Amino acid sequence: MLTGSILIFALVAILVAASFRSRKGTIQDRFWVLILGIAFPATVLLALLGYGLFVGERLLPRQGADVVQVAAEGRQWDWRFSYDDLPDQTTEGVLHIPAGRPVDVAITSADVVHSFWVPRLAGKMDAVPGRVNVLRIEADAPGTFAGLSAEFSGRGYNNFTFDVVAHDAAGWSNFLTGETE
Amino acid sequence: MNALQRHRKLDLVWASQPGFRGWFSTVNHNDLGRLFLITAFFFFLIGGLLAMLIRTQLATPGSAFAGPEIYNQIFTMHGTIMMFLFAIPTFEGLAVYLLPKILGSRDLAFPRLTAYGYWCYVFGGTMLLVSMVLGIAPDGGWFMYPPLTSSIYSPGINTDFWLIGITFVEISAIAAAVEITVTILKYRAPGMSLDKMPIFAWYALVTSLMILTGFPPLILGSILLELERAFGLPFFQADLGGDSLLWQHLFWLFGHPEVYIIFLPAAGVISTVLPVMCRTTLLGYGWIVAAAVALAFLSFGLWVHHMFTTGIPHMGLAFFSAASTLVAVPTGVQIFAWIGTMWKGRPELHLPMLHLLGFFVTFVIGGLTGVMVAVVPFDWQAHDTAFITAHLHYVLFGGFVFPMLAGIYYWLPHVTGRRRSFRLGELAFVLIFTGFHVTFLAMHWVGLMGQRRRISTYLPEDGWTTINLISSVGSFVIAIGFAIVILEVVLNTVSARRGGRNPWRAGTLEWAMPTPAPSYNFASLPHVTGRDPLTDDPKLPHALARGEGYLATPGQWRETLTVDIASGKPDFHVIYPGNTRLPILMAAVTGVFFLSLLLKFYWTVPLAVIGVAALVWRWVWALGRAEDLPAQDIGHGIALPNAASVDRSPGWWGSLFLLTANATFFGSLLFGFAFLWTVAPGWPPPVWFAPSMVELGLGIAGAGGSAVAIRMATRTNRQGAQPMFALGLGLVAVLILAAALGLLMLRAPSPDQHAYGATLLVLGGYGLFHACLTALMFAFLAARIARGFTSAARRAEFAIVRLWVDYMALVGTFILLMAHVTGISA
Asked: Does A16 contact B339 at a Cβ distance shorter than 8 Å?
């Protein structure tokens, strides 16, 4: 995308610069409007749009046997996480997930609009009061990933962060049996 | 009569009062255009100062310069001021100053409305500034998302300042848009058919129509949120049948068209200035007009792309993603038509041209990052990071500020009548251009590194320190550049040499007059035969000054003429009102209304409403006359009827476009109702409205009766009789409808407990307001007839009232049906 953008920018820059030459061939009006103005952007955009939709579709939550269901509830300025596999326990500020398995996070808010974002695992999803949005995340390897709330939420917005801890298989079963805090 | 005598006579009629008193009573577009521009630039400086504070805060990690409380106010006000108090008013000011000149007319359609809009803007803007000085400025972000901005999470008065102050300022945007639309359609030089209109007028027309359809959703949203905050009507509370997403839809339904409302006037400046700088004519005039219209339509299909992360289904996102990328096509047409224009001509590097080059570079980069953001998966990452901040500044600074700087330097000789003698502008350009790119390229970069928008500080470990410092240094370079621009404009105004007429050798009519422009613009009005009248006939200014055009004989009134919309044939003759303090007075009383709401002095609200109604009465009363005017000779053997003796008078056209905005407002309200009903959690409501066939039947009969009555009145008046009976009938019919709507409001089920009842209350209130307004109009017509202001010929006012009555009858019926029928079906 960056390369394409630089190429297009260069094209425009060269065309603008070339217009300052004292001798230049005549180019028909129709070439400017129809070819450069309409056909060229339309082609590039269609390709990009198709690509975007294709990638977007792949990122969507799909049904599957090994999908782990968790829930995230944002509030000023704290996240609470709960787990379908562990109905009695909630964690604050830290979300535990298994590594190497798809996880569906059901996101909502207890007060104002927040946004759940773990940059290294997935894009953002808003936490809207009264609604539940599902975001699919997946960590390839165990580790701790920084998460942020990415929707302005008032005074505590600066430090409104959380962590996602991805466990290996053993760690995850420990967590489910209550041996990890 | 020679040119000087003609000038003296015309100036006597058209001049504003001398001295500072003239500021408050002027209704002349020359004065008001300049006042608008100066005020907008003043707000630009304040907004810029706030930007400097933001960059100071972010220059170093852990900065203690401002805490989150203050910082949140600073960035909210920066966005708010730049959008509402700088960008839109700059367009208004430019259009107000330029349009009558470029169209070959003497003033805008509704001079007093120009003044009223200006004073509403000044008073509303002042309210926001006062809040900032007192440290209680809005702090919820310029997008004001509830529930963060609802009374639970923002109990202070800060948010009310935004909702009320901005709605006050919007009045000026709507007023200007109505004014500009009617002016472009009707107030042109004879012969200027639509296809011969200067390209700037096309852009201004499209922009105004977009304001009329784009701003009402925001005005509605602000009113609903303020009602929720002040009276607990739960439009945005999920647990009471509301939905915070409704605000986001209404806001972005306005917010995205807003981006094009800002870009299109700038594109109009580019399309006007660029060909002159290249000594040629614009390439692809028809294509550019088509592209502008296409942009306007597409921009209303884009709003959801600001909500890609709100959990909207992927198919929905696909549609809006497609629309968002599609919008680049008409933009591409314009860009390449401009480059083609440069190829066609011989570009000369005057100062305005430098800024146009700055536009090309900056705007194209902004457009490309825009296309990136339109790709949904990329947006999921970049959303709400500094990358977006950088992108939008490339688009707005590139697409608005650079073209406007080009425009300032291009038209400065016209406003001051002087030549530039200091070469400061070139230096300023270099500083602004370099500073801008340093600041915002750096900001793209930290955005991709994960720096969120709107954070007040960060940690050294984040690794953003150096880039932020570079960005801040760049921003100070921009500031120095603007200081030099101001210095040069001031020096130019007070000291430079007198310049000749038409310094750029342009072809458009605004240069066919002495500079600075005289109060009446043209001593006589030109007959236009091409797109560049001044190129076709370089001696035109002298011919006009000698009185060889239309309306060359100065009379006792401010006069101009209108044309047929499409063909540009002369249509009717217009007499303008003179200097008056009525607009500023009415803006002040309007201000009392908003201030009472803000400070919750509810007992002064009805007083202010009555005050505004009384002033409107006086306003409309001042027009027209008590005797029939004969057809007016405009020269060249043409006689035109006066505006009072036509069916479609200026007031009719103004009402038509005001009602367009009004209908969009109503449509947004219906959209909100349908949205809550189908999408919001917490439905169905616990209690439904109890329908009543009697109220419904009487109300609809009232609506139908009033529409019939105004038609009867119009016909009786045409036959030369007094239609008092029909007007009385209409008044009774309206009052019956008003009663039905009032009962609807009273019986709306617990409006503070569920959004259903709250919405019915607002719908009823909307209908009731229009019923009262129409009742007032019936009374007004009766009073006019009694005083002899109407006759079989002077029939214009009947047509205007008929328009409003029909609208009221339509929405009144619709509202009653909505309430009672949904009540039955439930």
From this structure: yes
